[in-house]
Design goal:
Layout (H helix, E strand, L loop, with lengths): L5 E4 L1 E3 L7 H4 L19 H4 L22 E3 L12 H9 L3 E4 L4 H9 L3 E4 L2 H13 L5 E4 L4 E3 L5 E3 L4 H9 L3 H6 L2 H10 L1
Parallel strand pairs: 2-3, 3-4, 4-5
Antiparallel strand pairs: 1-6, 6-7, 7-8
């Protein structure tokens, strides 16, 4: 899993509530067994019309946000079914961080296991952040997990709280297998004793 220390990148405002995992990646694109290639189906119904043409008004299709690595969403992002493919689609597209007031619980667990940083900020902070991003014409912002702060293009910083255990997992890039292997000596001793 890719480590997350800090990312400086374009952030795309996505002021939609209750973005469920089917909106993130529709079920028909979940036949893949690998993580690669799912990014092209991210937000399929929002990004493309019924003929497969890009919708010019969708934020990730705008020239300034095509390479956005940070999303600033609204309440209940990632709700719905437990599909891990939703996180895979986001990370395959290049998204490293989603900032929102709240997230679906299962989605949040899948995000942590796949190196996607989710930052919870109050509703009013997310709304202000989306406005600031637009006012700065999508100038890059910096998300610093080590310092637990977001630095806007204006230089203003917003602090955020983060679970210390999850912070370590993301900063060290540890997936479930890596975390288990950190105890390989203890496991070997246990196996030798039985």
């Amino acid at each position: 899993m890719q480590k997350f220390i800090r990312v400086k990148a374009v952030a795309a405002p996505l002021p939609l509530t209750n973005v469920d995992t089917d909106m993130i990646i529709p079920a028909e694109y979940m036949k893949a067994l690998t993580r690669s290639g799912l990014g092209r189906h991210l937000f399929r119904a929002l990004r493309y019309d019924t003929d497969g043409r890009e919708r010019a008004d969708f934020i990730l299709n705008r020239p300034a946000c095509r390479d956005a690595r940070i999303l600033v969403a609204d309440r209940n992002f990632g709700c719905g079914s437990s599909r891990e493919h939703a996180v895979w689609a986001l990370t395959d597209f290049g998204v490293r961080c989603v900032i929102a007031p709240s997230f679906g619980d299962i989605f949040a667990g899948n995000a942590r296991k796949n190196g996607l940083l989710l930052i919870r900020l109050p509703d009013e902070d997310c709304a202000r952040l989306r406005s600031e991003i637009e006012a700065a014409q999508y100038a890059p912002i910096e998300v610093d997990l080590e310092a637990q702060r977001i630095r806007l293009a204006s230089g203003e910083t917003i602090a955020f709280d983060f679970d210390p255990g999850d912070r370590r997992i993301l900063m060290e890039g540890l997936d479930d297998i890596d975390r288990t292997l950190r105890h390989a000596d203890a496991i070997a001793r246990f196996e030798a004793a039985i």
